[in-house]
Amino acid sequence: MPTAVVDHRPFGKDRAAFEAEMQRHLEDAGAQVICTAGFMRILTPGFISRWSGRMLNIHPSLLPKYKGLNTHARAIEAGDAQAGCSVHEVTAELDGGPVLGQARVPILPGDTPETLAARVLVEEHRLYPRVLRGFLERLDAPETGAAGTQGDTHRGAHGKNAR
What are 95-149's pLDDT values in tens digits? Predict the structure, then answer.
């Protein structure tokens, strides 16, 4: 699988130029789906719209709770009994796209944001591949098959078994 590193720092505050460079690499590689994890950059609506229905992210909370940063500390401070992670489609709303899967872990007495994060990370590594597999299967499904799934509307444009 082709790889590329696009460092945002040389682009300064020019997000459009940074995203154009990412787009160039993605197109050169023939990418059909983007999966982000720990990306920590807010993408512009223009970039997101080009990948609508084909970009996933994993977030360390049980969305819609605790969008954004410091999710583990916020869950502990709120007295929640559980925390976890969510895989969602990326939309222009930060951490606001449709949730495709979640995994839960208990918040234990004495948990710190770091201890909770370590347990959630284990579940992230289990959840993301499972959700991605199902997402790709829906993209590959014949249009008359799994009707009603978000990914089916894009299958025809990308072909069977395209990634």
Answer: 999 999 999 999 999 999 999 999 999 999 999 999 999 999 998 887 644 433 3
Alpha carbon distances (Å) from 80 to 39, 61, 70, 72, 122: 26, 11, 14, 10, 19
25, 59, 72, 158: which is the annotated catalytic residue?
A: 59
User: CATH code for 12-142?
Assistant: 3.40.50.170
Length of the chain: 163
**How many Cα atoms occupy the beta-carbon half-sphere of 112 within 13 Å?**
2
Q: Is 59 a catalytic residue?
A: yes
Strands 99-106 and 82-89: antiparallel
Residue 95 is which amino acid? D
Could you state, in order of their start, the residue ranges of all structural domains in the chain?
Answer: 12-142
pTM reported for the whole predicted model: 0.84
